Amino acid sequence: MHLVAMAAGFALILLGLYGALTHRNILRMIVGFTLANTGVHVVLVSVGYMPGRAAPILDGAVPVGEAAARIIDPVPQALVLTAIVIGLGITALMLAYAYRLFRARGSLDIADYTELKW
Amino acid sequence: MSFEWIQLAYAALTVFIVINYGLIMTAVVQKIGARVGGRYGIPVWQNYIDLVKNIALRSKISHGVMFYLGPVFRLTGGIGLLLFVPTIYGSVMHQNFAFAGDLILALYFVFFGTLGMALGAGESGHPHAAIGVSRGLAQVTAAELPLALAVFAISLQYQTLSITEIVAAQQGGIFNWTLFTNPIATLAAMFALVGTMMRAPFDVVVAPQEIPIGPPTEYHSAYLALMQTNRVLFPVAKTVIYMNLFFGGASNWAEFAVKVFAIYMVSVLVGVVHPRFRVEQSIRFFLKWGLPVGILAILVV
Amino acid sequence: MSNRFSIRHAAVLGLLALLGLAFWTLLAGYVPDTELNRTAAYYAENTARETGAQNIVTAIIVTYRGLDTLGEVTVLFLTAAIVALVLGQSKAPRGGTGSGFLPSGELLATGTRMLLPIILLFGAYVAVNGHLTPGGGFQGGAILASGMLLLLLADPARRFSHRIIARVESVSGLAYVAIGVLGVALAGGFLDNRILPLGQFGALLSAGAIPLIYALVGLKVGAEFSSMLESLEETEDS
Amino acid sequence: MVSAIFIIAAGLGAGFLIGLLREEQKGAAFAVALAALGFMAWVSVSWFIALASGTAQAHDIITAGTQPPFAINLRMGLAEAGLLSVITLTGLASLIYMAPALHALGRRAFAVLVILVMALSGLVLTRDIFNLFVFFELIVIATGGLVLLSDDKRAVAAGFKYLVVSQIVGILLLIGIIFTYHAGGSLNIDDIAAQPMAFTGAGLALFLLLIALIVELKPFPANGWALDIYESAHPGFSALFSAASATAALYAADKLFAAAGPDWLPLATVLGLVSFLGANLLGLAQRNDRRLLGYSSIGQIGLVLVVVGQRDILGDAYLYVAGGILFTHAVAKAGLYWISGLVPGRDLADWAVLRANPVLLFAFAAFIAMLLGLPPFAGFYAKWDLAHALTGADRLPVLGLVLLGALIEAGYLFRWFGFALKRPNPVAFPGFSTTGFAVVLVALAGGWGLGFAWGAGSVHGNLLLAAPLIFALAFLLLEPLPAWAKNILAIAGLLGWVALRAPEYDPLHLVFALVMLAGGAVILLASFTAKGERLGFYPSAMVMYAGLALLIDAQTSFQFFAAWELLTIGSYFLILRGRESEPHALSYILFSLGGAFAILAGFALASGGLQPFALENLAAIAEAGLPVAPWVFVLLALGFLTKTASVGFHIWLPGAHAEAETDVSPMVSGILLKAGLFGLWILLMHMGAQRLWGVDLTYLLVWIGALSAFLGAVLAIFQEDAKRLLAYSSISQMGYALFGLALMNHLGWLLALMFVINHYVYKSMLFLAVGGVYHRTGTKLMYKMGGLITLMPFTFVSVLVGIIAMSGVPPLSGFGGRWVFYNAIMSSEMRLPVVLIFMSGPIAFLYLFRLIHTIFLGQPKDEHRKLREAPFWLLVPQMIFVAFLIGFAVLPGMVLRKVDAYIGGHFGDEALAWSGRTITSQFGYWNPVAIMLVIGAIFVIVLALLLMMNRNAQKVKQFNIVFSAERPFKPQTTHFAWNFFAPYRKALGFLEAPHVTRFWGGITDSLHATADFTRRIYTGNGQTYAAQVLVFVVAVYLVVLGGVS
Amino acid sequence: MKDIDKSFRKDTETEFPLREELRPRSVTAPDGQVIEIDPLQDYFCQEPPKVHKQSYFKIVEDFYNWARAHSLWILGFGTGCGAIEMRPLMTPRFDAYRYGIQWRPTPRQANLLVISGYLSVKTLKRAIRAYEQMPSPKYVVGLGSCTINGGMYWDSYNTIKRLDDYLPVDLYIAGCMPRPEALLAGFMDLKKLIRKGKAEGANKYAENFDWYKANQKSVIKDWDMPDYNW
Predict the structure, then answer these.
(1) Where on the phi/psi map is residue E36: left (φ > 0), alpha (ψ -120 to 50), or beta?
(2) Cβ neighbour number for residue C95 with a 10 Å cutoff
(3) Does D177 touch chain A (CB under 8 A)?
């Protein structure tokens, strides 16, 4: 089960990257990266997953004393939250840039922005 | 060897003898050449007359200080060369000022006169003089090379740079001469002799009609007289070096006269049977023929 | 932008295949832990005692890895600021945009009026209960911002005061940093939540400064998202 | 001591606080940012000082009251404090520098900048990999914001490309982090177990982490995005991006490499090398200043990555070396970017506007020197230690490649400096902003400060405390004084130093000291000719002299090398002053640096990495017969041969010497060339003859010397330019000296020494004389002159004496050299190379005659009719030289006798006997006094005769010549001067074919072509860049995988 | 038959234009000052020739004259067809060398100028220059009828008819043209003159310098050289 999730995550990454690297439209590239980011997040959480254990919340279901034996690894879950937020930030920024680029030239083709080279 | 005042008188005597010898010898050589050509030739004292005539000329011009000094350099070079080399082996009188330096001094002092002359000719402002100098210098670089190598070879052979010692080593029979003990070096040196005597085929430097006799174009009167003096003195002085280095030296004036004459005749003989080389041709000649012999000379020693 | 399968696509495919090889190696070599590793185990055993939070993830986020979270909040702050910078340069004159939109209709307007208080309440709840239940400041903030989005959708021409949003954003950020610094002064280190009493395990007002921090984060995130939405809204093309 | 956590707290607090301000309160925003950054900088610097001075200890800062690895911790150590200082100070300076641009963008921009600096600090401080990621993403976002500061419209696209690549890096980083966590159960860097290079599980995770961080370092060739940022961003931001961001990112990588264990270091080494070489190579083809700086940044970071790869062998010196390079780079690069902001044009040649402000020009030069690791800057010490560590660990290929890359970098940087100094100023001087200028000055001060600090920390002593260098640098402050005042000081300084040091020198060193320093003072007399302030001359000249002074004083290899580099730099700036000297100065510095690198490698090899290495120890190596000995010999000899411009390395010399200023030519020719001989001397004295593959290396040197002597002379005779002629003649003369040295016998060395003295005297004299002529006629082409003898008689005399001395004609001093030469070759076994020397002797006569003839004799030109004699102060040293030459000709024993005894001590023989005035060798004898007297007497007698006979000679004018009964019309057509030795050219012109020039030209051309071709991989397409990053990652992965399995 | 008659002197009033390169010009010196150049003035020594006294002691002068007589150096300068008769002098058949006669290529070193046949006005100019550049004492020998009275070119518009109007001739050798034997005989006679101290042409030239110049200038219309060529 965990392997499926992880494999799906990796697949999402590759898929996202494929999209980002083959589509010349900037918005589609952004979408590709978002997809890849999602894949990363899936991989992240799947690493912390342990079959048959509960969420790391010490309520009635998991008493404090048994926590170590009953909960899954909480760290990846904490990390993924941060990763998501950061991914969101970057995506927002890219979108803003895309807008700015579009305003400047009326094009969203990445190949149109190659004045800087060599 | 140290200096004594009497040596000044001895040296003056040497110079006097050699100048006279040179004046007559060059005339004789010319006469021989004339006889070969079926002519009677100049009188043997013609050189003296020309000398006096030139000194007796009344009007002179000067192009400037270096022009004036050129012949002085030239003759100083000739006399100095003569006096830095012992003329007669074993003679106290004619050791001259050999104590001042050895073979190397003589070799390099050769250029003293050349340089002065070139400078004087240069200041005359005549383009032909400059062309002549250009040719002469260009040619001499190649022509002197075999001599330099030959000298190196025989200094290695005798393990000394002192001319006196080299002559001493050749005493005791004709087969002790370098000519026989080291024929290759001698041959190399002969290339240089022929090349630097300003005779055909290496006399394009003074090509009389093309660049009216080259460097001395503007020289006349007493300037010319000094140069004429040098013209008879210098080849003898140079030949003396060859004689000392390769032909056993001379132990008296008679031997001196004969040997110098004979060596001098080598270049004359070559000259009368060859047409003139252009400068680049003579450079190539010396590099192609003289240089290998010279290299061989230093390699086989 | 042709959809033709070109050499470029093939090259990218090949490239990704090779990258996939690396991923595959990772995947194939992955063996899930059967026991918590030492970090996780430490958290499982000590969270309750040290932070008083029920939700271990929250404890990690807010306390143990508080610096990350502060950074995270800063990321949002930065993003909001930069989006404003990026878009600010192509900002439409005041009142000049949004007017082209048709009014969004009665249904949406009314629905918004009804839903907004609930959304805000829910957001606040999620934010302050982060140490007890799944959720927290980020989630709460996002919910708050969604309320804002709803408002914008209902009335595209509507403008909020940037100053208020910015004040909320900055004040909560400053307060967050101040709490962190207080941790150095009063407790074990930067962002130590024990500057406040840990309280009753499982109670709302427990786990030291965690609820406070999460409330601030909620406010801040809500404000930042709102700010971004607004910046996007105010461009000429919207 | 304020905890480092407050750096982060202050950064964040200030950021949020600025958010609280109103949009109009930009002044307040600036104030807050300034206060925050100032506070951060103060904390960092105070920590750095405390840690460096040992009053504080490195410690961990824990957060959340929990011990790591369970909570994030920060670490404050010496390295961190240093890096933080650099980052925060750069941030502070950039804030001030960019203030107007930030104002224009709004108050938020201030917040972004402060947070960027905070994030960079966090990146340095944190010990948690995920926290690292967070800070990294903060940096990405802040960068994305600050790119917008630029006026350049293209910056937006650049920012987007940057974000695209950052996405990929982020993905790799996260995957690496999570699997690393999975493997080790901890996110703390200190918990990452050292991993062997394996490609499963933890190893692969580590690989992903490392490669992501490396990609963040913009490694060649996956770095097009970074270049675009460098090119288009605001220069103030580029400064930050290069100096602070790259520095922080590098430290992040370093932390992980430290954790990953020694197995991974080769990865850093190789990728660093590729980056260093590749970026520098491509830099060659750049014309845009900021992009060029970008290439250079990438290269430099690559270099530091190489150093990271050597941490296993550097041991305690690691921080010293890495820090030296990294900090110097940061300061220099920031400084250069800040300067670029003051320059209106973007082409390299547009930097010519800097000429309006000498201070900026000086800053430019200093920054370049810093980047290249030249003394006395910190990078120099680091470079030295790095080289020694590399050779100590037998990593010679790494050293070789590093030096090669540095040489290429030197190529484009110095070319650029040449542009700035020499190219026409394309735009009107815009006026520099005061704050920008001040910020550059701060960077400049920082660079010097670093140099001082690193010097203080060096085991070899601080170069900046060496008296000669202080004296030289003092001239920077004295620049406003008039030239004559500075000249008096300079002369006094040189003579004073010689007087001070002379008692301690052995005769050999004394001769070199006299020639180089006292001789330099004599040449400086000629500098009284100059009017005005003569900006830049004295610092350059005195740095050169300082280098020479230190060179003679040098006891250890380090001192020697430092002095060597100093004199190289000084002389480069000196040469560059000449009117047309730009390309020649460049080739000079490149050959010199190439040579210097060979010397560096040689010394490093000799020492085996152990320092300090006394020069005497070279002897021990030679005696021990270590297999490394011949290689040491080869490398050192190569270095010295470039300085003596031996054939093959000679092409820099003619231009450099010919185009230099009048009083500089004799310095670089008469004096500087002797430095190479001095080096060779030291080398041969200590190491003696070495054999490599059965070949006696001194025999090779003999051949090189002979060839140089020959070809230098041949080339000289075909020159039309008088100074070039003299320059080629220097090649020839140095060939003689080299020949003598390499003969490895007593007389050979004496010969070389005579050449040292004589060549100094007559070449200085001739250069001054020709310089005087140039001063008056405005041309160096000899055929345009003629007949100057009456107009410039003193100059003529000095040339006359000079050429007589030089051609070796008795009675002047050159003959002594020839005499010793013959005696030397007779006591040697070498035969064949002698032939070449024999040939070059008469050939020298040719070019010398041409020199004097075409300038002073023949027909004066109309326009030169009213020429005056050369300026008085040019004549003074010439007349001193004339007097010396005659004196030295008569009494050579005064100088030579002691040296002869000294050399005899070395060889254990007594080759010359000095009795009375006669000098006797095993083979011959030589009495200079007698020669002089005899020649003088004959000359006087003959002259008297002639005067008597020709006393009434009529003085005539220039056209009173026989001209085949015609008469000339114009001097131009009557002066035989152009192509003077035409017959020679016909016969031996093939020797003139510029094979060597073509060879080196071919190398540089192919480098340029490669650079120009390769840089086309940077298509400008963000998607391509992203793909390139992935290709890079995958390629490295596959290569490493192949290497492991 | 004098050259200087109306029919010969055509058009003497018109100023003959100077050749381009002989006109005054100005050049700019490297330091910027402008220098006026007058080629005819600046490049040449303007000093007139001097009359040289004989030696104070007659015996010395006799000795010198003997030497001069036996060392006749002829300037290699063939002006007309007579030059063809000069060459055989040096061949084995006549061998003039035995009398101390030889050719010199430069006037500086020659003291005998042989005007070998007709002398066109154009060549006269060169002959004058060559003569003036020779050091004194110097001798002029007119060879053939043309130098005496114009010979077969007596009415030519372009040759001079009487050499001693222009140069101080020491000796004429008549004939059209004289054989080498005649030349040798002439040289022998010249020697005698020299021995007697009567060959003082150079001094004569200096003494009557103005007269010679006037004659020379009257036929050479483009006189574009200094009065005396040193």
Answers:
(1) beta
(2) 9
(3) yes
CA atoms of D475 and D574, how far apart (whole Å): 14
Question: Which residue type, as a one-letter code, is found at position D810?
Answer: P
- Quote the pTM value: 0.90
**Cβ-based burial of C98 (10 A; exposed 0-12, middle 13-18, buried ≥19):** middle
Q: Which ranges of chain A have pLDDT less than 50?
A: none
The complex scores an ipTM of: 0.86
On whether any CB of chain C is under 8 Å from the CB of D904, the answer is no
Q: How far apart are CA B212 and CA D268, in angstroms?
A: 78
Q: What is the DSSP letter of D721?
A: B
Cβ pair D72, D64 in contact under 8 A = yes
* In a domain? residue D221: no
- Whether E128 is covered by a domain: the verdict is yes
Contact: D157, A118; criterion CB under 8 Å: no
Chain E contact for D958, CB < 8 A? yes
The CATH number of whichever domain residue E104 belongs to comes to: 3.40.50.12280
Query: What total number of domains does chain D contain?
Result: 2
Question: From the CB of residue D574, how many other CB atoms can be counted at a distance below 10 Å?
Answer: 28
Query: At residue D603, does pLDDT exceed 80?
Result: yes
The predicted-structure confidence for D523-532, as pLDDT tens digits, reads as follows 999 989 888 8
Max Cα-Cα span within chain B: 58
**Bridge-based pairing state of the strands D59-62 and D912-915:** unpaired
Torsion angle in degrees (nearest 10) through CA of D502, D507, D509, D515: 80
- Answer whether D803's CB lies under 8 Å from D848's CB: yes
**E222 contact D CB<8A:** no
For residue D144, give the chain A residue with the closest CA.
Answer: A93
Does residue A17 sit in helix, strand or coil?
helix
Q: Determine how many CB atoms are found less than 10 A away from the CB of residue D957.
A: 17
Does E8 fall in a domain?
no
Residues of A contacting chain D (CB within 8 angstroms): 13, 17, 20-21, 24, 26, 29, 33, 36-37, 40, 43-44, 47, 75-76, 79, 82-83, 86-87, 89-90, 93-94, 97-98, 100-101, 104, 110-111, 113-118
On whether the CB atoms of residues B125 and D858 are closer than 8 A, the answer is yes
**Whole-angstrom distance, CA of residue C200 vs CA of residue C112:** 38
Q: At what angle do helices A2-22 and D1022-1044 cross, to 10 degrees?
A: 130
> Which CATH code of 1.10.10.200, 1.10.287.3510, 3.30.460.10, 1.20.1530.20 fits the domain covering A2-112?
1.10.287.3510
- Residue of B41, B58, B208 lying closest to E52 (CB–CB): B58
In chain C, DSSP assigns E strands to none
Confirm or reject contact between E225 and chain D (CB < 8 A). Answer: yes
Residue D813 token pair: 């001093």
Overall number of domains in chain E:
1
Chains E and C touch (3+ CB pairs under 8 A): no
Preceding peptide of B201 cis, ω within 30°: yes
For chain D, give the mean pLDDT.
88
Structure tokens at C214: 């999460």
Which range marks the domain in which residue D820 is found? Answer: 466-529+537-939
Amino acid, single-letter form, for residue D710:
F
- Each domain of chain B, given as residue ranges in start order, spans 6-300
Helix (H) or strand (E) holding B190: helix B183-196
pLDDT attached to residue D429: 67
Burial of D784 (0-12, 13-18, 19+ CB in 10 A): buried
**Is residue D723 situated within a structural domain?**
yes
Task: Tell me the pLDDT tens digit for each residue of D681-707.
Answer: 888 888 877 778 877 888 888 899 999
Mean per-residue pLDDT, E86-93: 88
Q: How are beta strands E102-104 and B61-62 bridged, if at all?
A: unpaired
Question: What is the distance of C-alpha D675 from the center of its chain?
Answer: 15
Q: Which of A40, A89, A97 sits opposite D174 (nearest CB)?
A: A40
Residue type, D734: M
